[in-house]
Design goal:
Layout lengths: L8 E6 L2 H9 L8 E4 L16 E5 L1 H5 L6 E2 H7 L4 E4 L2 H15 L7 E4 L2 E5 L2 H5 L1 H15 L6 E6 L2 H8 L7 E3 L22 H9 L5 H6 L2 H8 L2 H10 L14 E6 L7 H21 L2 E12 L3 E11 L2 H15 L9 E13 L13 H20 L34
Parallel strand pairs: 2-5, 8-9
Antiparallel strand pairs: 1-7, 1-8, 2-3, 3-4, 6-7, 10-13, 11-12, 11-13
Helix pairs in contact: 10-11, 12-13
């Protein structure tokens, strides 16, 4: 681990990404407060005159009116009556990101896609000599090649953590450079909430140790923070704040799954049961693309007055027949507590206990019998055909997709959907 004397990291965050993409694509939304909601039915009030659900993102104009990215739609409309609500379009946002990153790479190579709206880059010697010109070149390229509605904030510093902190200091459309030789000055006025990796539990432990502000944290010892955290991540955070080149630890995949809050007209049990099959099929496709098998399946159904959870062990499988068969068993077990007349507003399916396909321990009597092998061949053939035609041309059982259902294509904080997720 080395101490960094120059600016080596650039962190870029697109401002109000979902809403700004909507404004770029629809001129009628430009200059107006825009909120993005989960599904089409949430853009209009229900029979009571109440806007259902929550707003998941909003434009800079909406934020200027006092709104935040995540808040109830009804509250948002009450605070800002002129707010325009639009349904999310994950495939559009994914394609917009592809276009934006293509333009950015004409200026500087991209190191990591951190999320749908955040990237990191490694700054070369030229950028270190004139970081302001590098940042402005990126902003100019986006404005000229994509449009004026999509802006970005940029932070630059010695390492990824410090550049991310810098990026958040001047939003929207800002540029902040934390020069290593200026540290810790610009950090001392920040709160613990401004530091990535410091959560509520960490803050409580810091306060209990008498570390009540950034000055005290800066003056602490790395072993002390490691002890407070209870693991090496505390020590790594200390070194990152002090400008050391701290590399991200490799992570191991733990699950593949999908969870959805359902539109009001799709919450009947038969509809949810059919939709859960699609969600699980999409999760299984992703799992196979990444080269895993699963030994467990978790199932969650949220009703208005209770939440039902169940799980089932699987024999190290990856094919649709085995996985969907297990899901139907879970639905059969749920029948004792979930009636056909119930309403389910959220459904979740998760494949867990993952094994690399190369690490699978075969059991000829159960895990790898001839029937399972044939289903696996059929599933691989189905995947190949769907990739070839760019849609779900073949599925195991019915595929009752409705417009706007976004099965498999929802964008989360940690996952950017692939093109195949929208098949």
């Amino acid at each position: 681990m080395r101490s960094v004397a120059n600016i080596e990291s650039l962190y870029l965050d697109f401002d109000g990404f979902f809403a700004s993409v909507e404004q770029q694509c629809n001129s009628l939304l430009r200059g107006r407060p825009v909120g993005v909601v989960a599904f089409e039915g949430a853009t209009k009030p229900d029979h009571r005159g109440i806007y259902p659900g929550a707003m998941i993102a909003c434009s800079k104009e909406a934020k200027a009116a006092g709104l935040t990215n995540v808040m109830k739609s009804q509250e948002a409309k009450e605070r800002c009556p002129e707010l325009i609500l639009v349904a999310q379009k994950p495939d559009l946002y994914r394609r917009a990101q592809d276009a934006l990153l293509n333009e950015i790479e004409r200026v500087i190579p991209i190191d990591k896609r951190k999320s749908i709206d955040e990237i990191t880059c490694i700054v070369d010697a030229g950028g270190q000599r004139d970081p302001e010109s590098l940042a402005q070149a990126i902003k100019t390229r986006i404005r000229q090649a994509i449009g004026e509605q999509i802006t970005c904030s940029i932070g630059m510093s010695a390492n990824r953590m410090l550049s991310k902190i810098a990026c958040k200091l001047d939003k929207p459309n800002g540029l902040t450079i934390l020069h290593p030789h200026d540290l810790p000055g610009p950090l001392l006025s920040l709160s613990f909430d401004d530091i990535p990796g410091i959560g509520p539990g960490n803050i409580r432990r810091l306060y209990s140790a008498g570390i009540v502000n950034m000055t005290r944290l800066w003056e602490s010892e790395p072993k002390q923070i490691r002890k407070l955290w209870g693991n090496v991540n505390g020590e790594r955070l200390w070194y990152a704040l002090h400008g050391y080149d701290v590399k991200a630890q490799p992570s191991k995949r733990g699950m593949f799954g999908h969870s959805r809050i359902l539109p009001p007209d799709e919450r009947a049990v038969p509809d949810v049961r059919a939709f859960s099959r699609i969600l699980l099929t999409k999760a299984a496709r992703r799992m196979r693309r990444d080269g895993f098998r699963a030994a467990g399946l978790y199932f969650t159904a949220a009703l208005y007055n209770r939440t039902y959870r169940d799980s089932l062990s699987l024999p190290h499988v990856s094919d649709d027949q085995a996985i969907l068969g297990a899901l139907m068993k879970l639905w059969e077990r749920a029948a004792s507590v979930i009636n056909e007349c119930d309403r389910i507003y959220q459904i979740g399916v998760v494949l867990v206990d993952l094994y690399d396909v190369q690490e699978r321990q075969l059991d000829l009597l159960h895990y790898d019998d001839s029937t399972r092998q044939r289903w696996e061949v059929l599933t691989r053939t189905t995947d190949d055909l769907n990739r070839r035609f760019g849609r779900t041309a073949i599925s195991l059982g019915p595929w009752p997709m409705k417009a706007g259902s976004l099965a498999g294509g929802k964008i989360s904080f940690t996952r950017i959907p692939a093109a195949e997720d929208f098949f």
